[in-house]
Amino acid sequence: MFINPFFYTSYNGDQMKTKSIWETTISLPEEKKELPQTKTDILIIGSGIAGISTAFHLKDCKKKIMVIDKGRIAMGVTSKTTGKLTYLQGTCYQKIKTMYDLDTSYLYLNSQKESIQIVKDTISKYNIACDLEKVDSYIFANQQNEIKKIKKEEEILKKMNISYQKCTTLPNQYPCKYGIYVSDTYVFHPLKYLLSLMDICKKKGITFYENVCATNIRKKKNLYMVETSQGTIEANTVVICTHYPFFIKPCFIPFKTHIERSYVVASQIIKPKSFSAILPKNPSYSMRYYQNYFIYGGESHDMSHQIDYQKNYEKLQQQYKKYFTSNIDYMWCTHDILTEDHIPYIGRASKQEKNLFIATGFNKWGMTNGTLAGKVLSDLILKEKNEYTQLLAPYRSYTVQRILVLFKNATNTGKIFMRTKLDRNPSFYTENISVFKKDGIYYGKYIDKNGKSHIVYNKCPHMGCSLIFNKKDITWDCPCHGSRFDIDGDIIEGPSTYSIKIKK
Ligand SMILES: Cc1cc2nc3c(=O)[nH]c(=O)nc-3n(C[C@H](O)[C@H](O)[C@H](O)COP(=O)(O)OP(=O)(O)OC[C@H]3O[C@@H](n4cnc5c(N)ncnc54)[C@H](O)[C@@H]3O)c2cc1C
Predict the structure, then answer these.
(1) What's the mean pLDDT in 86-94?
(2) 62 conformational bin, left if phi > 0, alpha if psi -120 to 50, beta if neither
(3) For the chain, domain boundaries
(4) Contacts of 121 (CB under 8 A, 6+ apart)
(5) From the CB of 363, is ligand 1 less than 6 Å away?
(6) Count of alpha carbons within 13 Å of 416, Cβ hemisphere only?
(7) What is the pLDDT of residue 253?
(8) Beta bridge mates, 240
(9) pLDDT tens digits along 301-355
């Protein structure tokens, strides 16, 4: 079945698809929707790169494994990524060194290189056609303070024995005063890769279920009872790869992370180049090519800093039009979870929960970190040694720097929580969008172009934040933790596991 994209007309008249280039270039198989099994050895919740990679690494362990997803398989954030496989991740090594030390930066670097190797080896062993291409990967800058940061990153790369080249231009002539690049990095089609891994898993007896939403986890003796939209599943081991966990305890992820939303455009071009690049400033910009398409991302922002997303779509289009002439064919947005120390949370959810695992906080580097999650989690489950378990442990110890960033994140979330309560009808709402109060409860109302009213609860079921209407995507979005709902209240993205439909 080919996905049927719908179109969006930009402010300057370009007609563009609002799905990602990956979603529209694959044929997505239908998976099982009814849940006959209620018992399993290992239950993996979430079928993005983290969930499917975990299933893949466990496929030979002779245990009964189920993967469930609340939506279609692989259609979460992984379907909207830009698909770069690189260890040159902005200026992350100086961030990690500041939080910890050079050894920790070095360990993280090795984890990323190893993940790239895992993807390469898997593709070659199973002959996976996912358009893997070796490309140079750049970080670059135009302003003095940004150049200084790149030079600082160079110092750390040198100490870690990474060879790199310097440059003052990019292969596509995008403005660049100074940059560096490495050559042993890649780009690929993330969904072609993931769906092939799923096929391999299925041949080994792993079952995949769509439209099964996990809502709660209870403990019964040594077993986990996972409540879902289709009944309870009993499992010895549970792996949560839902991008953002749907529970607060035991990991307290909402207090240890923040969420950034990013925007991406893709346009057909005549002379594609062979490189990927990041301008690591705030907001950052990213570039890569896929066949005869150029993919350009940017205008990221902390979700809690901004509530009118339309502006960012327009800013990205304007930024694109400054440097490129071809029409925009695709435009999409998505968000990722950022940790305060640039190291993801992968491992046991807490020291006490021996068989409950989690993978989140990929810092916009989920192609490598989701792959890493698959390897680390499977090693933990199979009681194999893995040198990265301490580095990634979700309950790792705090340094003063980490506590300061956690405090800043919590303050920002608190501020946006209050802002949405105090100003329920922001100025960018038009006459067809409103929030109103009836019998002490707040409702959101959207009147569509046929004059039909769509009324939903205005409170996010996750942690109670008031929802903001996203005029571009026609959705109700939570600015605190990223849950999204359609105009009739159905969940599009978690962490919320409950809809905002009005109870009849
Ligand atoms: C604009 C952008 C560009 C990016 N580009 C890159 C890049 O070039 N390179 C790179 O390495 N990384 C990149 N990333 C990061 C990367 O895309 C993500 O980190 C990664 O895709 C996240 O994978 P995941 O498996 O954790 O989540 P997902 O792919 O979102 O998978 C989670 C799955 O869990 C399901 N789920 C959620 N809740 C439940 C529930 N309660 N019950 C059942 N199922 C549930 C969802 O439906 C979903 O299918 C980018 C991120 C952004 C925002």
Answers:
(1) 97
(2) left
(3) 1-401, 423-493
(4) none
(5) no
(6) 26
(7) 83
(8) 45, 358
(9) 887 777 777 788 889 999 999 999 889 999 998 889 999 899 999 999 998 899 9
> 438: how many CB neighbours lie within 10 A of its CB?
8
The yes or no reply on domain 423-493 and CATH 2.40.10.240 is: no
pLDDT at residue 8, as a whole number: 58
- Smallest CA-to-CA distance from 217 within 195, 242, 243, 180 is with 242
Q: What pLDDT is attached to residue 9?
A: 55
Residue found under tokens 């009964």:
64
Q: Output the residue whose Cα is nearest ligand 1's atom 15.
A: 364
Token pair 């200084």 in the structure block, residue:
148
Within 10 angstroms of residue 376's Cβ, the number of other Cβ atoms is 29
Q: Give the pLDDT band (50/70/90) at residue 4.
A: very low
Per the CB < 8 A criterion, the answer to whether 341 and 323 are in contact is: no
| Letter string b/e over residues 266-277, b meaning 16 or more CB atoms within 10 A of that residue's CB | bbebeeebebbb
Name the nearest CA neighbour of 189 among 104, 74, 111, 309: 74
Q: Which residue out of 77, 132, 208 has the highest number of ligand 1 atoms within 8 Å of its CB and is therefore the one to mutate?
A: 77
Please, what CATH class does the domain formed by 1-401 belong to?
alpha beta
Residue 180: partners with Cβ closer than 8 Å, 6 or more residues away: 88, 138, 139, 140, 150, 153, 154, 157, 164, 165, 166, 167
Predicted TM-score (pTM) of the model is 0.91
Decide: 470 in ligand 1 pocket, CB within 6 A: no
3 falls in which pLDDT band (50, 70, 90)? very low
φ, ψ for residue 218 (rounded to 5)? -120, 155
Mean pLDDT over each residue of the chain, to the nearest integer: 91
Which runs of consecutive H residues, i.e. helices, occur in 224-278?
253-256
